[in-house]
Amino acid sequence: MSDLFFYGTLCHKPLLEIVLGRTAGCIDARPGRLPDHAVFWARDEVFPLIAPAPGQNTPGLLVRGLDAEDLARLNFYEGGFGYGRETVQLTLENGEFAAAEVFFPEPGLWTPGDPWSLTDWAARWGALSCRAATEAMGYFGRIGPAELALRFPAIRRRAASWLAAQASPADPAHDAVHDVRLIDHRFAHLNFHGIEEARIQFRRHDGAMSPELDRSALMTGAAAVVLPYDPVRDTVLLIEQFRAPLYLAGDPAPWLWEPVAGLIDPGETPEQTAHREAMEEAGLVLRNLEKVGEAYSSSGSSGEFVHLYVGIADLTGAEGIGGLASEGEDIRSAAVRFDALIAAIDAHRHRDMPLLVTALWLARHRERLRTGAGVSSFGQ
User: Fold this and answer.
1) Per the annotation, does 196 bind a ligand?
2) 281 is in an annotated binding site
3) Tens of pLDDT, residues 71-87
4) Distance CA 295, CA 350 (A)
5) Which CATH number fits domain 222-372: 3.40.630.30, 3.90.79.10, 3.90.1640.10, 2.60.40.10?
6) Which family is it part of (predicted)?
7) Which numeric CATH code is attached to 2-150?
C-alpha cells in the first residue's frame, strides 16, 4: 500500500474518482500540507506545477492505502506528461507528520506562472477535465502513458464538444433520459479521432422499445468551417488538401477542394477558430464573419458538429501554399470567381458537403454582401 499527496487537479474529487475508478467514499483522503513548496499555473497551460518555495506551505489532499492497481491508474494518467513520484514529508491538520509520494514535474519541463487556484481551475476546466479523464481512463490497460499524452489534446477537444452538446436545448418531443437505454459502452479506438461503441435501445414511434442495437460512432469534436469571400472582387477562396478518409474509401481522387476548416480547441469560440484557421491554412485575415448555420456533419456515423460561416476578406494575392507542418498539413489555396464556383457545383464537380452548404448560402446572400461592400451591381 502507498500514500500519495495531491496538490493540483487531482484534489478535485470528481476527477480523482474517475482516475482511480471508485467513489470518494471508498478513498481514504484527508487534508495535508507540504512545507516549503508552492503551486503555480504552468505558463500558457491549464494545469499546475509544484516548485520549491521556502517558508510557504502547499495545501493538498493526502490519499492513503493506494494499491498496485491505483498506482498503475495514476501512472497511466500522469506519467506521460513528464511527472514522476518523489517521497516527501507532510504536515497534517492535527500537527502530525506523514510521509507520502508526490508527482513532481521534470525540472525545466514547464515554466511557473501565476499562483495556482483550485477553485478557479475547477470553475473553468473541472467539468471538461472530468469528461476528458472518462475517455482517457477508458483506454487504461490498452495503451501506454506516452500514447495517452500524445492523444490528449484531441481527447480534450472531444470533451469540450461533448459539454457543448450537453448544453443544447432539450427535445420537447422526446425524452432521451427515459427513452434511450445505454446497455453497454466502450471507448473502442483512439487515434487522431476516437471511435466509441455502444449497445443501445431507444423508444420507437409506436411507443415500444427497439431491439438491442450494436452501434459505433466516429467521435471528432466540434469544428468551424469558413468560406472566405471577397464581395468587391466577387471571388471565394478554396483550399485543396489530401484527405486520407477518401483514399481509404477507395476514391481515386483523394485531393479535395474545400472551405477553410479546423477543430475547435477547448476555451475557443467557433468564431475564434474560424479566424485562426483562416490564418493558418491560407494566411488570411477575415474582416468579419457571416453565420451560415450549425449542424451535425454526418449524423448516422459521426458526432462531429460544425459551425459554418462565410468570412468577408480581401482576397488580393491570397493564393499560395499554407497549413501547419506540425499537423502534417499541405494546403493549396486558389481564388475562384463566384459564378465559376456555382457552375462547378451545378456540374457536380465539388464533393465537399460544407462547401456546398456555404456556397449555396452565399448564393442567397451575395447581393446583400456586395451592396454592403459598396458594389452597386453584379456587373462591376
Assistant:
1) no
2) yes
3) 999 999 998 888 888 89
4) 20
5) 3.90.79.10
6) Belongs to the Nudix hydrolase family. NudF subfamily.
7) 3.10.490.10
